[in-house]
Amino acid sequence: MSIFNGKDSKSNIGAPESISISNMIGKGTLITGDIETAGNLRIDGKLKGNIHSKAKVALGNGSLVDGNIYAQNADIEGEVTGVIEIADTLVLKSTAVVKGDIITNKLVVEAGAKFNGTCRMGEQPMPREQSKTEQVKVENKKAANV
Fold first, then answer.
1. What range defines the domain where residue 15 resides?
2. What is the pLDDT of residues 57-66, one digit of tens each?
3. How many domains are contained in the chain?
4. Residue at 1 is within a domain
5. Average pLDDT of the residues in 113-117
6. Residue 40, Cβ neighbours under 10 Å: how many?
7. CA spacing 20 to 30 A to 123: which of 13, 48, 132, 133?
């Protein structure tokens, strides 16, 4: 039995990875390091590192991510300090606090959400190897060294 969906894990054989994989980081858990997954990810704890998901990322109320988030979709109720690049839809719930830039195709912001940074919509995020924000930082460093 899978602890995430209550079904026998054998029933997922042959299913696309992004559908069959679910990951959860519980409240009270602190992880330091990057997370990369083909499936959905829910965080109710704290993460110091980047998230790379080919599916959906959900941050629960009280969660904290100190790092960048790259995903297909995201729902944020907690706090993020870093760049958020979402290929499809980003939802900032009423308890969300974002300190960093957002790049997304569609953005939904509930009343009460807090966002400090820049936002670009309708653009496809760059490959995760180097985002536009990271490119600007590199160019600024080069200019400062001249």
1. 9-145
2. 999 999 999 9
3. 1
4. no
5. 96
6. 22
7. 48
DSSP string, the chain: --TTTSS-GGGGTTS-HHHH-EEEE-TT-EEES-EEESSEEEESSEEES-EEESSEEEE-TT-EEES-EEESEEEE-SEEES-EEEEEEEEE-TT-EEES-EEEEEEEE-TT-EEES-EEES-PPPPTTS-HHHHHHHHHHHHHH-
pTM: 0.72
Q: Average pLDDT over the chain, rounded to whole?
A: 82
Whole-angstrom CA distances from 129 to 9, 15, 100, 134 are 33, 27, 18, 9
- Is residue 4 one of the residues assigned to a domain? no
Both tokens of 114, joined, read: 């807090």
Q: Count of alpha carbons within 13 Å of 54, Cβ hemisphere only?
A: 9
pLDDT tens sequence across 25-35: 999 999 999 99
Please check whether residue 2 lies inside any domain of the structure: no
Give the per-residue pLDDT at 1: 38
